[in-house]
Amino acid sequence: MPKMKKKADLPTKICASCGLPFTWRKKWAASWSDVKFCSERCRRTRSDTKPTPVS
């Protein structure tokens, strides 16, 4: 049986909505490079508007 990774060794990212770190989950294995949000709630409440720079 192959050795399992420790949870501390899993990759992490920063959520684009709330700014908190989150770790890799098995359900994201196929699309980890595309994952930007830590939860469905953060994905739904993301900020779609970007601040406009003041000239």
* Count of separate DSSP helical elements: 1
Largest sheet: 2 strands, antiparallel
Helix content: under 10%
The radius of gyration is: 15 Å
| Class from secondary-structure proportions | little secondary structure
- The count of strands amounts to 2
Strand content: 5-15%
Task: Note the overall shape.
Answer: elongated
Please identify the oligomeric state.
single chain
Q: Whole-Å distance between the termini? A: 61 Å
Helix-strand pattern: EEH
Q: pLDDT below 50 for ≥5 consecutive residues: which ranges? A: none
* Average pLDDT score: 83
For the biggest β-sheet, the strand order reads 1-2
Structural summary, described in words:
The protein is mostly loops. The protein contains 1 helix and 2 strands. It has one helix at residues 40-44, and strands at residues 12-14, 21-23. A two-stranded antiparallel sheet has the order 1-2. A hairpin with a 6-residue loop joins β1 and β2.
Keywords summarizing the entry:
11% strand; two-stranded antiparallel ribbon; little secondary structure; 55 residues; UCP037205
